[in-house]
# Entry
Amino acid sequence: MTGKRRTTSTFDVDALIKDPGTRILVTCGSGGVGKTTTAAALALRAAQAGRRTVVLTIDPARRLAQSMGLTELDNTPREVPGGVDGSSGGALFAMMLDMKRTFDEVVSAHSTPDRAEAIFANPFYQALSSSFAGTQEYMAMEKLSQLAEQGTWDLIVVDTPPSRSALDFLDAPQRLGRFLDGRFIRLLAAPAKAGGKAYLKVVAASFTLVTRVVTKVLGNDLLRDVSAFVASLEAMFGGFRERAEHTYQLLKAPGTAFVVVASPEPDALREASYFVERLAGDQMPLAGLVLNRMHRAAIGPPGTDELTARRAEAAADSLAAKPSTPETALAEAALRVHVQIALAAEHDNRMARRFAAAHPEVPMIAVPALATDVHDLDGLRTIGALLSAH
Amino acid sequence: MTAAPAQPAPGRLVDGIPVAARLHIVTGKGGTGKTTVAAALALALAEGGRRVLLVEVEGRQALAQLFDVPALPYAEQHLAAAAGGGEVVGLAIDPEEALLEYLDMFYNMKRAAHLMRRMGAIDFVTTLAPGLRDVLLTGKLKERVMELRPDKSPLYDAVVLDGPPTGRIRQFLDATQEVANLAKVGPLAKQSKGVIDLLHGPLTAVHLVALLEEMPVQETIDAARELDDAGYRIGTVVVNRARRTLVPAGQEHPHEAELRRGLDAAGVDAALTAPLARQMAEYATRQSLQAGNASRLDSIAAARVELPELNQPIGLGELNELAEQFMTDDQ
# Structure
């Protein structure tokens, strides 16, 4: 009896980005794996294929941002100069998320100008909108919603914030929505009122206890700011959770696809695994895994025996034992380089195989490590081509 | 002062690791290998019979994985022995546990905990408001640094934190200041001052981990300037996974005929000549980029430690090898 093993298929990136049915692509993965570069390369390739594309980046490296014409953070998509030639019919726009401004827009959209001014001036709002965990994730999703509502884009590519863990970005918007909409903030805002309500009588004593703790820990100043903030936001309550919920549904809608990005390191692949499992659990569509920075050792033409790290090392050692000539010194250096690269490649392949064995249903594409960093459009085109090579 | 018991002498450490420093915070761009570097530094500090606490705060159980032990509970636990009778102890600080402990210690209010959890208050403090979360983490960190033995000597000779990435390190270190600004009076304000003083004082050094690639180098330079401006002391800049220089100067574009003859002498298939030459040229490109990035790091006025790229997986043997790079032969 031979058990038939499912084998991992190749992730057909071109088919995905050219499919008119694909409307939103979300790249996710842990920090330092080339997520932003992958998002930008996918967007550029889609635009070259004739689609009107916008890429929403969260925190791009400075030179990559400059290469896409993102010199200022103005929270609006701008066309990328030199991105695509007009003949394809496609267009590439890019924007960088301004978390605070996006939050301000949400507030303005849901309240009167007077009330909005009062909110903007509140110290607690200033802290919430600029530094609270989850705000960046929440605002990225909010911006995605806005772009989707504009209806002018064939494809929206979203890069996710560099979270502590890749999963943060799925949970944070709802957590923040739940908090802003929840009992706790109301309690912070109006302890006396909450304690006095009839339906709370039974637990009134507990509320008082919690309030006492909160007051003791946070102090009265902070409570007053929170209280004022909540009072001015009262009209918007419900709106927050509703929007977070709406965005969450958008991520599950047909037309949305997730691309998980990783490098062949244990940490990055562990995060990728969590993400794959979580997406499956939430019925969110995973398109595939991009495995960046894969080392590839030199190989000869078809029919040549593979030069393993061990064989290369033995060959280099044999040269080192001989009297040195320019030829043998050169060959020894070439072989020592090969040992390093071949060992790295063996490690990377082992990591990739391990992931594939655990997740045989996830299509995968390996992108070789480049000798130079990517920080211009040509570099993004190269990555795009590598993403589509199979 | 003469009554203070003799402490084991620290091993000979490189410049940038001040003898007086008791709290070492390791940060770096995501993916640069902060955890590995923090562990190697802890082993180096433990050399010569010292006791070092290695702390993680990101809830990733990265220390347990690195040292190949079961997941760490919220308690100090032996991780590894160091040369000369030293010891590295591990601790994964969990914000929720730290909060409950804090409430219990300062307010004797642990019984309020389950109520607070039901109200969503614990969730609020530990996950939503990083200000408060980071206040709890740094508060706990300070408590561990200051903990004394019955004879009044420090329980730990040094505490090493596998810290948040450079993108969040300022927020993390400044959290207490931020909260102190929001809550100007009250117990929280009072509590904050001790932490602020510790982090800015002579007992603390921040170490930056970089890879010799463009973006990590840029982020390291930016972080160093920001931290310096904010009054934190930079200890060392640790270059991780430095590739060895394998291509001699002048061989960046190998002559294929020459290479073929050399390979032939080693019994290597001539068909591999062109691919090996290309590979060598690519490696040379990386080598020279690496050298360029290394010199860009010179703009940071801090001691440099270079850790070689080791073959994966990294285990205790490799960590000890890396730890040696933090030590010097100079007296």
The first strand of chain B starts at residue 23 and ends at 28. The CA atoms of residues 177 and 196 of chain B lie 7 Å apart. Strands of chain B lie at 23-28, 51-56, 77-82, 86-92, 158-162, 204-210, 234-242, 303-308. Chain B touches chain A through 79 residues (CB under 8 Å).
